[in-house]
Amino acid sequence: MIRAHTVEQVRAAEADLLARLPEGTLMQRAAHGLAHAVVDLLGSGAYGRRVLLLVGSGDNGGDALYAGALLARRGAQVEAWLLSDTAHERGVAALRAAGGRVRHREVTRSGDGRRAASSTCGYDVVVDGIVGIGGRPGLRPAAAAVLDALAGIPVVAVDLPSGVDADTGELEGPHVTADLTVTFGTHKPCHLADPAAAACGAIHLVDIGLDLPEALLEALQPSDVAALLPRPVPDAHKYTRGVVGVRAGSATYPGAALLSVSGAACGLAGMVRYDGDDPVLDLVRAAHPEVVGPGRVQAWVVGSGSAAGAESALRASLADAVPLVVDADALAFADLVAGRPAVLTPHAGELGQMLGEEREVIESAPLRFARRAAEQYDAVVLLKGRRSVIARPDGRARVTLSGTPWLATAGAGDVLGGLVGALLAAGLDPFDAASVGSWLHGAAGTLAAQRGPIVASDVAVALPALLGSL
Ligand SMILES: NC(=O)C1=CN([C@@H]2O[C@H](COP(=O)(O)OP(=O)(O)OC[C@H]3O[C@@H](n4cnc5c(N)ncnc54)[C@H](OP(=O)(O)O)[C@@H]3O)[C@@H](O)[C@H]2O)[C@@H](O)CC1
Ligand SMILES: Nc1ncnc2c1ncn2[C@@H]1O[C@H](COP(=O)(O)OP(=O)(O)O)[C@@H](O)[C@H]1O
Ligand SMILES: [K+]
């Protein structure tokens, strides 16, 4: 499991450790990890390579300076630009002692930053030590101008890309976009949640020995998914494995029924039922002969392509005291499910309608709005997107790290709804069902896309091979 801690949690853990260790130990650990990561990124060693450090006033700049000193001792040509009036003094001294060059704020100030950068091209890597967890979101104009002028050079961010909001993953104004982010002690929410996560590039975690409390945000890894997957016990029969019912699709959108059922029929539940108009049921049976008609279920999947029938389908499903997936057209009636075990699966546009916000507003703060909706609707919310967020009413959340932009294809969400329903029917709680389902869906999409462009039904086809590999 990847766990992300807030700045407050990191500060508390750090204070604890600082009291027990000789001064500077944590920063040395951080700087060593950072220097190694820079060498790895450079590929053919540090010797003779040109490294530019962008240094702010705090310890983030200190990490960059000490790492720069280590790189200089390994033969790199290291230059530090101090972007603030003050900088970590011992870090500056260490870099100088190792043969690095230090330029002061005057050369890099505002308009001059552009000139300084263009006159000193040829850097192999830029190390962003402007601000870390002590920074306010956004960048000062001088830093923004320097970054503009350095565009195209690989960037390694120290702890986080300067300018992003560490705790929320939100962006306010300019920020660094990194190829690699080297973080210390633990991940922070900005490393997992979009839009900031998209600015981090690859993420490398350096262990500095922090003893951390429970995290409110996490991301499943393949081994976590494998451990949570339902498996048939030796004496299983189809009913003990759980029955998932699908109320999706309509005469206008029969494809939604087929796709929802294809996700539900992934083999993780014992049986799939379809409840809908006869012509649609005939189509479903033709594609999935194992599917049976309405009856008792352990979970319902309701709403995709249901059109005008969404409300009655949802009410009928609520009459059974079983968990449910509420998708697409049924989301308009999501307040009916408050307090019931349920997973709501909106994309940003649908969540915007549920919360009275524009789609772009939701996309600018997916973690915040998924949590808000989970609390307001008293249900688990799976907000779909590049980095889907799964939030519980109590604020705990997970982010899905699997997936591919090829999943941005019509009907992919229908497959996901069916899959999450199968996991609910098999007995996973709504938070696990949503996060495991979302991870499997992303990984199946990635697997399917290895062969070329995909359509939604390819995702369901890829599920058995993916599950086998787990
Ligand atoms: N925690 C740990 O376990 C460990 C932490 N470590 C490291 O320490 C880092 C945290 O260091 P930190 O606390 O000194 O804060 P940091 O982020 O360097 O900068 C804060 C200063 O920047 C300024 N400033 C603020 N906003 C700004 C902006 N938008 N644009 C420009 N400037 C801005 C503001 O000062 P001002 O210029 O306003 O006087 C403020 O005081 C952490 O990320 C990690 O790298 C490791 O060494 C080892 C273990
Ligand atoms: N850029 C992207 N990167 C990764 N996954 C994506 C991207 N865009 C969409 N997805 C995933 O594809 C699925 C699309 O679902 P949805 O928006 O409901 O589409 P539809 O309504 O057409 O089924 C979701 O699981 C979402 O997380
Ligand atoms: K930084």
UniProtKB/TrEMBL annotation:
Domain YjeF N-terminal, residue spans: 10-216
InterPro entries: CARKD, Nnr, Ribokinase-like, YjeF_N_dom, YjeF_N_dom_sf
Ligand binding ((6S)-NADPHX): 59-63, 132-138, 159, 256, 305, 347, 414
Cofactor(s) named in the record: K(+); Mg(2+)
Origin species: Nocardioides vastitatis
Residues where K(+) binds: N60, D128, S162
EC number assigned by the record: 4.2.1.136, 5.1.99.6
Signal peptide per UniProt: none
Keywords linked to the UniProt accession: ATP-binding, Isomerase, Lyase, Metal-binding, Multifunctional enzyme, NAD, NADP, Nucleotide-binding, Potassium
Catalysed reactions listed for this entry: (6R)-NADHX = (6S)-NADHX; (6R)-NADPHX = (6S)-NADPHX; (6S)-NADHX + ADP = AMP + phosphate + NADH + H(+); (6S)-NADPHX + ADP = AMP + phosphate + NADPH + H(+)
Residues that hold AMP according to the record: K384, G385, R386, R387, S388, G413
Gene: nnrE
Similarity comment: family membership: In the C-terminal section; belongs to the NnrD/CARKD family. Belongs to the NnrE/AIBP family.
Protein name in UniProt: Bifunctional NAD(P)H-hydrate repair enzyme
NCBIfam families for this protein: yjeF_cterm (TIGR00196), yjeF_nterm (TIGR00197)
Residues annotated as domain YjeF C-terminal: 221-470
